[in-house]
Design brief:
Length: 465
């Protein structure tokens, strides 16, 4: 997608015009984090980073952006600055695909304050959405176990969000997408079956199947529920599968898109097996999500491929992750945002986050947030309850925030979407099962180093009325 620097909220520019006049050389550190896992889940999958970095490397205001802003009251000297605008800051981040948790920095931007301000909206827009969808995909993958997952959501997505949703779905564990543009641009596998309209356009279902199989025999999946699944669609598909065998070809599968999917899949499997077509796969679709897929598996439905659309790409039922971007340092001095709601008080300073690993390299269930260069983080304190703390010396500490951009240039090797998905899978394998269950998952602990807590509390006192 062609994104220019005007992909931002107006207030970022009005504030930036003031910075331009009053503190053009100010240096800021901002934290990106969110406050709750989506779907009442026990974890989230961080996604969208590579897109953000690629866009930031080339981010500019176009001449029409500048003309628009000129017509909306921005002053000449600031417009001249925008003409040469580039993001030249540093970014420290969790790796894309990692398992992440609320209320700890996932990414930090360290940059000139104008640059850091202008990119806020773009960064939140891309990271919040892809993280939501990758997390949904990961939950669907958890239910589907090792069966194949196909993203079919583009038509139901929130307009061009579908482009990024398809990428995030692969990161979260999907195998392929029906979305041709995303598959082409991100080099991810594409696949698909056929629509009811294709069969409706013929007088005869069998002829529709025959034509399709003849012209497109490779990866051919026939949709069998247009008229009657067991009396018409399946018998016709079996006829075509046998004809394909005569030509040395194999029918890949049949798709069920309505009715009781467990009942129909069992019946279809039996009829296919009885016809010696044990290799023909059963594909199911129709408003699937992690709960329906889990139920279908529990019912013993012999479904090999699940096609998921609406519930995946819209992140249903959670419309968004409420990720935020908060100033934590300005010109080397700590900054805080207070709130009546104690959980919303922000964390000052540029920081590092350490993940605690047990003896087997599994995630113990705790991330400790510390001041960036703090050494020997031996204890983590509960953010607000001074009676709760955890001794950390028995764990291996894994620093999670790595520098991924330096002076506006990416400093980590590019990773393909499949590599990010592989990484994500390997990270999720280290997370104990109790954090992955859908109902009342175990709560992953996030704590502050003793030093960070002391500094945060000092600032709270300083600003309290
Ligand atoms: N065996 C099953 N167990 C649990 N949920 C199922 C099962 N079979 C289908 N479902 C789900 O139940 C819902 C059925 O929705 P609905 O009644 O609208 O579909 P339908 O009437 O079969 O299809 P359509 O309206 O497209 O002809 C879907 O979300 C589907 O995935
Ligand atoms: O149910 P979802 O999870 O959103 O999955 C995508 C749905 O989109 C298609 O239906 P649609 O009626 O749009 O087209 P069709 O003619 O191919 O059935 C497909 O058959 C699925 O039912
Ligand atoms: O390939 C399919 O079967 C498909 C693709 C998009 C939406 N519904 C179905």
């Amino acid at each position: 997608m062609n994104i220019t620097a005007s992909y931002t909220d107006l207030y970022q520019l009005t504030m930036s015009q003031v910075y331009f006049r009053t503190k053009p050389d100010g240096r800021a550190v901002y934290d990106y984090y969110f406050r709750n896992n989506p779907f009442n889940g026990g974890y989230s999958i961080f996604a969208g980073l590579e897109d953000v970095l690629n866009i930031l490397e080339n981010l500019k205001f176009s001449s029409s952006d500048v003309t628009y802003l000129e017509q909306h009251g921005f002053e000449r000297s600031f417009l001249d600055y925008l003409k040469d605008f580039r993001f030249r800051g540093n970014i420290f981040s969790s790796m894309e695909g990692d398992v992440v948790f609320p209320n700890r920095p996932i990414l930090q931007v360290e940059a000139n304050i104008i640059e850091a301000q202008i990119i806020e909206t773009l960064l939140l827009n891309l990271l919040n959405f892809q993280t939501l969808i990758a997390t949904k995909a990961s939950r669907i993958r958890h239910s589907a176990k090792s069966e194949t997952l196909l993203d079919m959501g583009l038509r139901r997505a929130h307009a061009t969000g579908g482009y990024y949703a398809s990428r995030a779905a692969i990161i979260g564990g999907f195998d392929s997408t029906s979305n041709v543009k995303a598959a082409e641009d991100y080099d991810i596998p594409s696949s698909g079956t056929m629509a009811h309209s294709f069969i409706q356009s013929y007088e005869d279902e069998l002829q529709a199947f025959r034509d399709f199989a003849k012209i497109r025999p490779k990866n051919c999946v026939l949709l069998i529920d247009t008229y009657n699944t067991l009396r018409s669609g399946l018998p016709n598909a079996i006829t075509v599968a046998k004809e394909m065998e005569d030509n040395g070809e194999q029918l890949l599968g049949v798709r069920l898109d309505s009715g009781d999917l467990a009942y129909l899949a069992k019946k279809a499997r039996k009829m296919l097996d009885d016809a010696n077509l044990g290799y023909v796969k059963i594909v199911a679709s129709n408003q699937l999500d992690e709960f329906v897929i889990k139920s279908l598996k529990d019912q013993g439905a012999p479904i090999d491929i699940f096609g998921v659309g609406t519930n995946l790409v819209t992140g249903k039922p959670d419309a968004a992750i409420e990720g935020v971007y908060k100033l934590s340092e300005y010109n080397g001095e700590p900054r805080i945002k207070l709130s009546e709601n104690i959980i919303k008080v922000s964390l000052p300073y540029k920081k590092q986050v350490y993940r605690m690993l047990d003896k087997n390299g599994m995630f113990y269930g705790a991330d400790a947030v510390a001041v960036f260069n703090e050494e020997n983080v031996e204890r983590m304190e509960h953010s607000f309850d001074s009676n709760k703390s955890l001794e950390l010396t028995r764990f291996e500490h894994e620093p999670l925030l790595q520098q991924v951009m330096k002076n506006g240039k990416k400093v980590m090797p590019a990773r393909t979407v499949s590599e990010i998905a592989e990484y994500s899978k390997s990270r999720l394998e280290k997370l104990p099962e109790e954090y992955k269950r859908f109902q009342n998952p175990h709560i992953y602990k996030i704590g502050l180093s003793t030093e960070l807590k002391k500094e945060r509390d000092k600032l709270v006192l300083k600003h309290k009325f």
